[in-house]
Design goal:
Number of strands: 13
Helix content: 25-40%
CATH class of the largest domain: Alpha Beta
CATH architecture of the largest domain: 3-Layer(aba) Sandwich
GO molecular function: monoatomic cation transmembrane transporter activity
Radius of gyration: 19 Å
Organism: Niallia taxi
Structural class: alpha/beta
Shape: elongated
Oligomer: single chain
Strand content: 25-35%
Number of helices: 9
Pfam families: TrkA_C, TrkA_N
Order of helices and strands: EHEHEHEHEHEHEEEHHEEEEH
InterPro entries: NAD(P)-bd_dom_sf, RCK_C, RCK_C_sf, RCK_N, Trk_Ktr_HKT_K-transport
Protein name: TrkA family potassium uptake protein
CATH topology of the largest domain: Rossmann fold
Strand order of the largest sheet: 3-2-1-4-5-6
Largest sheet: 6 strands, parallel
Length: about 220
């Protein structure tokens, strides 16, 4: 079952997250108090609604309790950010990541239980979206609009299989450029190198090819 996300606040960062989830085919509920922003991002969200999120009753009606992960990106509206975060945590939301306006905002968010506090630039939205969508993806670094470097957790499916046997470049179009294993990193591993369960594979390629490898190869 695919993860479900809610993005609260559709400024540059929140809006960028919604678009990235949309491009990845992931369900996302988008929320903002501004009708203009709601209309702007409606084409990119599973549902897009105009509401004030400082009400537990309102969030409950929207089915927030069924979501896996919430992003609170209310910009400089620190009061709304803090109260919304507090409500989400009291509702039992598993993961609440919040955009902080400054270091003081960050301290407050940490004290009330935010699972992660971030100070994102707009281009960070892509990295975060890629990271949380996948169960296997550990990290994502954007190289261009369509290409990146990712860290993927190796599974039982590739355990004790060599790079030559998997032939990832030919089958998926991406390349394993490194393997992290027990604190060490094998750079440019040889074709005969076998992958072990628990390894972290460092993969470079187009986002499309990497997604396909993650889906079918791992």
């Amino acid at each position: 079952m695919k993860k479900q996300f809610v993005v609260i606040g559709l400024g540059n960062f929140g809006g960028s997250l919604v678009k990235e989830f949309f491009d990845a085919g992931t369900e996302v509920l988008a929320i903002d108090q501004s009708l203009e922003r709601v209309e702007k991002y409606r084409p990119f969200a599973t549902h897009c609604v105009q509401v004030n999120t400082m009400s537990e009753a309102t969030l409950t009606q929207l089915g927030i309790r069924n979501m896996d992960h919430a992003f609170v990106a209310l910009g400089d509206d620190i009061e709304s950010s803090v109260l919304t975060t507090l409500i989400l945590k009291e509702m039992g939301m598993k993961q609440v990541w919040v955009k902080a306006a400054d270091v003081y905002h960050k301290r407050v968010l940490e004290k009330i239980g935010a699972d992660k506090v971030i100070h994102p630039e707009r281009d960070m939205a892509k990295r975060i979206a890629h990271h949380v969508i996948s169960e296997k993806m550990i990290d994502y670094i954007e190289l261009s609009e369509k290409h990146g470097i990712v860290e993927l957790a190796a599974s039982d499916k590739v355990h004790q299989r060599s790079l030559l046997e998997l032939n990832i470049r030919a089958n998926y179009g991406c390349t394993i450029i490194g393997i992290q294993r027990k604190g060490d990193t094998i750079v440019s591993p040889a074709a005969e190198e076998k992958i072990l369960k628990g390894d972290t594979l460092i993969v470079i390629g187009s986002n499309e090819d990497i997604y396909q490898f993650e889906k079918d190869g791992l």
